[in-house]
Specification:
Layout lengths: L3 H36 L10 H28 L19 H17 L2 H30 L1 H9 L20 H14 L2 H13 L11
Helix pairs in contact: 1-4, 2-3, 2-6, 3-4, 3-7
């Protein structure tokens, strides 16, 4: 007879496969219109103004923070997620630092494009995806890892980092395969700053069409 943890693990695996298959198409459908409106709209701020510099700085800070958190979390969780409750390093700050890092990267995309509409659409899409996935993941981990994981959930925020319980691991074993996979994932979003700069330069060009006025 199949045990409950195995059933939940299978559900998580199936959920991830389905969402991985469809999230690209869903992302294009949801983000396509805001992206088109953004690149064909009058810039939110004057290029090379103080506001432009401030938003660019915020975009870089947010992007680097998100990327750093994702790689930091990968060093801790790589290869151990389903075997032990990881509660150290970034996982002592919040239960899902990988998702929190992804959210920061998503917000940075809106900042680089200087579009409130695109940033909001991307943030909402990211949060909805995380919420739907995380509930199933946590149920599976609670069944697999037992009281240790449930106690960890009770004292640690789901997404928002809290430094009250921060602790570093005395020894860290790095899973190279997991690190390689994270580098492969990063190849999809590492171009966000470059894309933002290129689109910003195009929107600043006198010949570029400006068909909309949206934030």
């Amino acid at each position: 007879m199949t045990s409950e943890p195995i059933v939940l693990a299978s559900r998580v695996h199936l959920l991830h496969r389905r969402r991985f298959k469809w999230r690209g198409a869903a992302g294009v459908l949801v983000l396509g219109p805001p992206f088109v409106f953004t690149i064909l709209a009058t810039p939110l701020v004057t290029p090379r103004s103080w506001a432009d510099v401030a938003i660019n700085s915020a975009a870089w800070i947010t992007f680097i923070a998100g990327a750093g958190i994702r790689f930091w979390a990968t060093l801790y969780i790589g290869g151990r997620k389903n075997d032990v409750a990881v509660t150290e390093g970034p996982y002592s700050l919040c239960r899902h630092p990988l998702y929190f890092g992804s959210l920061l990267v998503a917000v940075s995309a809106g900042l680089f494009l200087k579009s409130i509409v695109f940033a909001a659409a991307l943030a909402i899409l990211t949060v909805l995806y995380m919420q739907g996935t995380v509930r199933v993941e946590e149920a599976s981990l609670a069944e697999r890892l037992g009281d240790a994981y449930r106690e960890y959930c009770r004292r640690t925020n789901r997404f928002w980092p809290s430094f009250r319980h921060f602790q570093a691991a005395p020894r860290l074993t790095v899973d190279l395969h997991s690190l390689y996979l994270e580098c492969a994932r990063a190849s999809r979003w590492i171009w966000i700053p470059l894309v933002g700069e290129v689109i910003g330069a195009l929107r600043d060009a006198p010949w570029w069409p400006r068909l909309f006025t949206i934030p």
